[in-house]
Design brief:
The complex is a heterodimer of chains A (199) and B (307).
Chain A: H1 2-33, H2 37-64, H3 68-97, H4 103-123, H5 125-133, H6 140-169, H7 172-197
Chain B: H1 7-23, E1 33-39, E2 44-50, E3 53-60, E4 63-71, H2 81-86, H3 89-92, E5 98-102, H4 108-116, E6 121-126, H5 129-138, E7 147-151, H6 154-163, E8 170-173, H7 188-198, E9 203-208, H8 213-223, E10 228-232, E11 238-243, H9 251-265, H10 271-277, H11 298-302
Parallel strand pairs in B: 5-6, 5-8, 6-7, 8-9
Antiparallel strand pairs in B: 1-2, 2-3, 3-4, 9-11, 10-11
Classes of the chains: A mainly alpha (199), B alpha/beta (307).
Amino acid sequence: MVRTLSIVIVTFGSGWILMGLEILAGRMLAPTFGNEIYVWGSIIGVFLAGLSVGYVLGGVLSKLWPSAWGMVIILLLAAGTLLPVGFFYGWIADGVEQWGWSVRWGSLAAAAVLFLPPSVLLGMISPYAVRLTARRMETVGLSAGLLYAVATVGSFLGCILTAFYFILWFGIRTLVFFSALGLVGLALVAAVAHARASR
Amino acid sequence: MQRPISEWRIGVGMLLWVGWVGLAPPEPCWAQKILLEKESLYHYIRVVEEDGVRRLQFRRGGVDYDESAIDLQEPARFQLHYYRLMMASLLHCPEPKRALFIGLGGGTLPIVLRQYYPNIHIDSIELDPEVVEVARRYFGLREDERMRVYTGDGRVHIRRFVREGRSYDLVFLDAFRGGYIPYHLTTKEFMELVHRLVGDAGSVAANLRPGFESYHYQRRTIAAVFRNQWTYGQQFNVCVIANNHPQPPTKQQLLETARRLQKEKEFRFDLPSLVSEGARQNDYQTEGPILTDDYAPTEVLRTIPKE
């Protein structure tokens, strides 16, 4: 029970942080590439591309190594990818802009450099969570459905609360570091799941 | 052979018609012609004409905001209150040689500025290609080597202009998206870029909306980069002129400049009256946070009334 609950929390939290990050991404790229519709298109595209790669990798990894340790490592790596984003997003975006590409391809490239690593890693969480919670063949669809719902509700809240309130209360950089901290917290929760499993 | 129209089709047709009539906004009773109504990448655009005056409107939250207006016969006869306020910039920069507009809209201000200063070089940046098209087709904007229009984001372009080492005597900040200014055109980092374009000799004219919390943030942010600020106008719109001139003029000196320019240029508006009714300096809350790229909740603040 505790194990399932901690996996649910990890799924919810990583969905939250992913979409919160997507909202922040628009703010991070606007000073360099503007608030154009291309920039939003690039950001959403990069996150979706990252997720699809992450789903495949997460699925494969969960088959090879069906342990909550996998999740712990993925979450810590994701937290690690947010540190350079938080510290250097302005420099990185400016650097990519200096390549002289158009706003469309430039913003796509900058979004990919900044946000592809965390979105691939966070995309790996859902298939992993399904693998770790599935008990029997008959209920695998049910648990997959419930976990997707949990992840998406988390994404909904992360998106709305970040856009409506957090940006008003905190700076972009602070929020990125909160996200990294949140991922470390989720890694601890996943470690609890592992401890429960190995008893 | 003609097939009889089945009853259900007539029924659906009637429903659609009733729905259309019921939902369509009532036609205004005055003679307003809609010349263009279009969904662009960024805005819901309308161009309307009434009594020879054309207006460019962006719709936001069900309200059609007037972004630009022009009397085609006589563009210098200003149709929007804030145009006159923006001309207060000439008090602080009486002989502009190079001007930059961030936010073109219909292009009324560049058109009129060029009428009064035939040799001026004007660059304008406009985000929305459809709006540039409106300026050309409906507002009579003509481009040449001294009247250039750049399409794209204001900040992206001025970053490039700074890199190219361009400079301007006057920069007009007039980028609105139906009632608010995009946040990345309000921050300290943005103002620093603008400062690099005008140097310590040039001036900036910003069209701002008082009465919202965001106004004080914007004024404090400008103050973080520019030493001197003057405000012209009172409600709805004010024009804030900012610069780093070492010796800011007194109100009396401004009045003298205004009288001299008025005589020389024969403006269709009264420049000296702007000085006497406006030219306030610190009409905002000077203590408080400023807007930066990292922290800029302007859209949110925009909706919070001041009191």
